[in-house]
Design a protein that fits this description.
heterodimer; A: alpha/beta; Spore Coat Polysaccharide Biosynthesis Protein SpsA, Chain A; seven-stranded mixed beta sheet; 14 helices; 7 strands; globular; B: mainly beta; flat
C-alpha cells in the first residue's frame, strides 16, 4: 500500500512539473508576442514571377458550401495561367458534382476530379494523394470546402516559397460564424489565442509553427518524396508538420493570410471534432516521438517545442489520472502534501489548459486583435476545459486502439451551416 | 454550531461566491452578444503598391468636381474639407488647406503645405519645401531638402533632390533619388539612385553564357558550417541553405535561390540568378547583379553599380531594419523597410 501511495504522489509531482513547463512555455509565447521582436513573413515581397499553384479542395457532400468557395477562388488575383483549381469530389451523394461541373464549364482553370469508383477509398488523405498525382502545380494550396479564401490569399501563401528552406506555409483561420452562439464565440477566442499568439510566437522564436491542413500550402515534390499522406493518420496536417521538420524543411506562418471558416455550432459536433483531432494528433505522437528526439535537423529548443506540441493532446488524459490520484490520496487520508497540491494542480492546469491556450494567451491574442468585449466569456473556459478533458481523453484511447488496428479509421465530417453566404 | 461545521459553511459560501462572481460578465456577454462579430477580413483585398494613392484619388474625385476647378476657387467638402485652387503664382509661404494645381506649376522654395497637394500636371518644388501628401498626374520634381510627411505618387517620373525625406513614394515610371534621400517604401520602374545611372544588365546574356539546364541540381545544398565561402569566380548551379554566414568572393555566381540563416556578404561583380533570403543582414558589393528578390530580417546595404531585378519582372528589396543604397544603383521595382532607408 505504501508503494502505491508513493507512486501516486510521485505521479502527481511529475505531472505538476510537466504542466508548469507548459505554462512557462505559453507565458514565453505571450510575452514574445506582446513585447518581443516579430518575425517578418514574406508577404511584403512583390514578385510577378510566381510558382505554378494547384488549389485542392477535398469535398464530400458539400453542396451547401461548394459554390461559395469556388466563387471565391475563381475571383483570386493570382495569375490564371499559373493557377489550377482542383475540387475533389470524394464520393458525394448530393449536388456537389453538379456544382463543380458548372464551375468547370465556366472556368478553364477549374479542373474537377471525381472520386466515385468503389475502389477509390474515401477520405481526405486519399483525396489529397490522388489529386497530387494529377496536379500540375509545384505548390499545393489546400482549403476545406467551408472556407472563404480572400482574393489575395493564394499569392500570400505562395510567396513564402521564395525561401528555399520553407516546405509548408500556414495561414490564419478566423471563425466566420462566431456570432452564432456562445460556443462559436468561445471557439473564436481560443482560435485567436492559437494563431495570433501561439503560432506567431513559435514562428518568431524559430520553433515549430504547425501546418494546419487547410489555409495552408506545401511543396508537392517534398511531400511526394516523403510518401504523401498516410490514410491511417487522421491528423494529416500535424503529421506533415513533423515530416517536414524531420526532413530538413521549415514551416512558415503567415499571420496576415487570413481566411474564414465555419466552426461547429453545437457541443455534440464540437465533441466529435475535438475527439477526432485528439485521436489523429496522438497517432502522430506514437509514430514520430522517437524520430523527433533523434533528428539531426532540429536543435534543442525545436526538439523541446516539438515534444511539447506532440504531447499536448495527451495532457488531458494525464490530468484526468492526476485528479483521480488526488482523490484516492484524499479518500485514504494521505493528504499531507497532496491537499495543497490538489488545489495547485487545478489552478495550474486550468491556467494552462483552457483548451491548450491559457487564459492569459487568449486575452493577449484578442487584445492584439482589438476584440476585448468578448473576453467576458473567459471564465467559461473553466467548464470548457472539463468538456475537453473528457473528449480529448476518448480521442487518446481511440489512438491507442488504432495502434493495434489495421483498418483505416473512419471519421464523421463536421456539419456545415453555410453561414458564409452572409459575406458572399 | 461546531467549529468544523462553521468552517465547511464558510468554504461552501466562499466557493459559491468565487464561482458566481466571474459568471456575472459571462451572463452579460451571453445576453448582449456585444463584440461577437467576426474579425473583418477584406475578401477583395489584393496587393497593390499604389493602393493608398488610388484610394485617395477615389475620395478626391468623389468629393470635388475637378473639371470645373479654376485658379482662385475655394470648394468645401464634408469628407475632405476645404480645397484651394491655385494658379501659377504662389502668394503665401504656408497653405493650411488642401491645394489643387490645375496647370503646370513651379512651387517656390520654402513653401509649406500643411495638407495634401493634388496636381493635374507636372509640378516642380523648390528647395526646403514641406507637404503632407503630393499627388500629381504627370512628372514630379522635388528640390533639395524637401520633406514629405506621408506619401507622394505621380503618373510620370519622380525626381527627388538631395537630403529630402519622402516616406512612401510610388510611380509607374522611373524614380530618381539623389544622395541623402530617406524613405520607408518605394515603388517605381525602376528605382534609380542618382540619375546619371543609365544601364541595364542583361540576364539573358549571362544565362546564355553559363547556363545549361542539365547542369542544374534540383536538390537543395545544405551547409552547416558557421561561415561558408564561395570562392572567387566559382559557379554554383543549385539552390542553397546555409546555417551560418555566407560570403561570396569576387565574381562568384549562383544559379539558384539562397537562404542564409546568418549574414550574407557579396564581394564585387557577383551574380545570383535567384532570390537571397537572409535571417541576418545582406551586403551587396559593387557591380553585382541579383536577378531575384532580396529579403532580410535585419538590414540591407547595396553598393554602387549594382542591379536588383530585371525590367521583365517585378522584384523586391525588403528589410526589417535599415536599407542603405549607394549612388548609381537600379532596383526593379519595389523597396520596403520597417525602419528607414537612405541613399548615400
Amino acid at each position: 500500500m505504501e508503494v502505491v501511495m508513493f507512486l501516486l504522489k510521485a505521479y502527481l509531482l511529475v505531472f505538476i512539473a510537466i504542466v508548469t513547463l507548459y505554462m512557462i512555455r505559453h507565458f514565453v509565447f505571450t510575452f514574445n508576442r506582446l513585447f518581443g521582436e516579430q518575425k517578418l513573413y514574406y508577404q511584403d515581397i512583390m514578385d510577378n514571377e510566381v510558382p505554378f499553384v494547384t488549389v485542392i479542395i477535398p469535398m464530400k457532400n458539400e453542396e451547401l458550401v461548394a459554390g461559395q468557395i469556388l466563387e471565391r477562388l475563381v475571383s483570386s488575383d493570382y495569375p490564371v495561367e499559373r493557377l489550377e483549381i482542383i475540387p475533389v469530389n470524394d464520393h458525394s451523394e448530393d449536388a456537389t458534382q453538379e456544382i463543380i461541373e458548372k464551375y468547370a464549364a465556366a472556368y478553364r482553370h477549374v479542373k474537377p476530379f471525381h472520386r466515385l469508383d468503389k475502389e477509390d477509398k474515401p477520405g481526405k488523405a486519399h483525396s489529397l494523394n490522388d489529386a497530387m498525382e494529377i496536379a500540375e502545380g509545384e505548390i499545393i494550396v489546400v482549403f476545406d470546402a467551408d472556407y472563404q479564401p480572400p482574393d489575395g490569399i493564394i499569392r500570400e501563401l505562395a510567396i513564402g516559397f521564395k525561401d528555399p528552406e520553407v516546405g509548408a506555409v500556414m495561414g490564419r483561420v478566423l471563425v466566420e460564424n462566431c456570432a452564432t452562439n456562445m460556443l462559436t464565440m468561445m471557439l473564436e477566442l481560443e482560435r485567436s489565442g492559437g494563431y495570433q499568439v501561439d503560432q506567431q510566437a513559435r514562428y518568431n522564436l524559430d520553433l515549430i509553427p504547425q501546418y494546419g491542413g487547410t489555409v495552408g500550402a506545401y511543396r508537392k515534390e517534398a511531400v511526394l518524396k516523403m510518401g504523401g499522406f498516410d490514410p491511417q493518420v487522421l491528423a494529416e496536417d500535424t503529421e506533415l508538420t513533423y515530416k517536414m521538420y524531420l526532413n530538413g524543411w521549415h514551416v512558415a506562418y503567415a499571420n496576415r493570410a487570413e481566411c474564414y471558416e465555419e466552426m461547429p455550432e453545437n457541443w455534440l459536433d464540437r465533441a466529435k471534432q475535438i475527439r477526432r483531432w485528439a485521436r489523429g494528433h496522438n497517432q502522430v505522437m506514437f509514430r514520430y516521438l522517437v524520430p523527433l528526439l533523434t533528428s539531426r535537423y532540429l536543435n534543442f529548443k525545436q526538439k523541446l517545442d516539438g515534444l511539447l506540441l506532440i504531447f499536448i493532446y495527451m495532457m488531458p488524459t494525464l490530468l484526468f489520472f492526476g485528479i483521480l490520484s488526488s482523490l484516492i490520496l484524499f479518500l485514504v487520508g494521505d493528504v499531507e502534501i497532496v491537499a495543497g497540491l490538489f488545489f495547485l494542480i487545478f489552478v495550474v492546469s486550468l491556467g494552462a489548459f483552457g483548451n491548450f491556450a491559457p487564459f492569459f494567451q487568449i486575452g493577449a491574442a484578442n487584445f492584439i486583435d482589438g476584440r476585448t468585449r468578448a473576453l467576458r466569456l473567459i471564465p467559461l473556459f473553466a467548464f470548457n476545459f472539463v468538456f475537453y478533458m473528457l473528449y480529448v481523453s476518448l480521442g487518446f484511447w481511440d489512438a491507442v486502439k488504432d495502434v493495434f488496428r489495421k483498418a483505416e479509421p473512419y471519421w464523421e465530417k463536421t456539419k456545415r451551416h453555410q453561414r458564409g453566404a452572409n459575406h458572399a | 454550531m461546531h467549529s468544523v461545521d462553521m468552517l465547511i459553511w464558510q468554504y461552501a459560501i466562499g466557493t459559491i461566491v468565487l464561482i458566481i462572481l466571474p459568471m456575472i460578465p459571462v451572463i452579460q456577454a451571453v445576453w448582449d452578444k456585444e463584440g461577437y462579430a467576426p474579425l473583418p477580413v477584406n475578401l477583395k483585398y489584393t496587393k497593390d503598391p499604389r493602393a493608398i494613392a488610388k484610394q485617395f484619388d477615389r475620395y478626391f474625385t468623389d468629393a470635388y468636381d475637378i473639371d470645373v476647378l479654376e485658379p482662385g476657387a475655394r470648394i468645401e467638402s464634408d469628407k475632405l474639407g476645404t480645397l484651394e485652387v491655385l494658379g501659377p503664382v504662389f502668394e503665401k509661404n504656408v497653405y493650411r488647406e488642401m491645394v489643387y494645381l490645375p496647370h503646370k506649376s513651379v512651387v517656390p522654395p520654402e513653401t509649406k503645405f500643411e495638407r495634401e497637394v493634388v496636381a493635374r500636371d507636372e509640378v516642380v518644388f523648390g528647395d526646403h519645401c514641406y507637404a503632407r501628401v503630393i499627388k500629381t498626374g504627370k512628372k514630379l520634381i522635388l528640390g533639395e531638402e524637401n520633406c514629405i510627411i506621408r506619401w507622394i505618387d505621380a503618373e510620370g517620373a519622380i525626381y527627388v533632390g538631395k537630403n529630402s525625406h519622402i516616406n512612401i513614394a510610388s510611380t509607374p515610371s522611373t524614380m530618381h533619388l539623389e544622395r541623402g534621400v530617406t524613405f520607408h517604401r518605394l515603388y517605381a520602374y525602376p528605382i534609380l539612385t542618382s540619375h546619371t545611372f543609365a544601364f541595364k544588365k542583361s540576364l539573358q546574356h549571362i544565362r546564355d553564357e553559363h547556363l545549361d539546364e542539365a547542369m542544374i541540381d534540383k536538390n537543395l545544398l545544405y551547409i552547416s558550417e558557421r561561415t561558408h565561402t564561395l570562392s572567387q569566380n566559382s559557379i554554383l548551379f543549385r539552390s542553397m541553405v546555409t546555417q551560418g554566414d555566407l560570403k561570396m568572393e569576387r565574381g562568384a555566381k549562383v544559379f539558384g535561390n539562397i537562404k542564409v540563416n546568418g549574414d550574407v556578404t557579396l564581394a564585387e561583380d557577383c551574380f545570383v540568378d535567384g532570390n537571397i533570403i537572409a535571417e541576418g543582414s545582406i551586403t551587396i558589393g559593387e557591380n553585382c547583379f541579383i536577378a531575384g528578390d532580396l529579403f532580410s530580417r535585419e538590414s540591407i546595404e547595396i553598393a554602387s553599380y549594382s542591379q536588383i531585378g530585371t525590367s521583365e519582372h517585378t522584384k523586391s528589396v525588403v528589410a526589417k531594419k535599415r536599407i542603405r543604397l549607394a549612388e548609381h544603383i537600379a532596383i526593379f521595382n519595389y523597396l520596403l523597410t520597417d525602419e528607414v532607408g537612405e541613399v548615400g
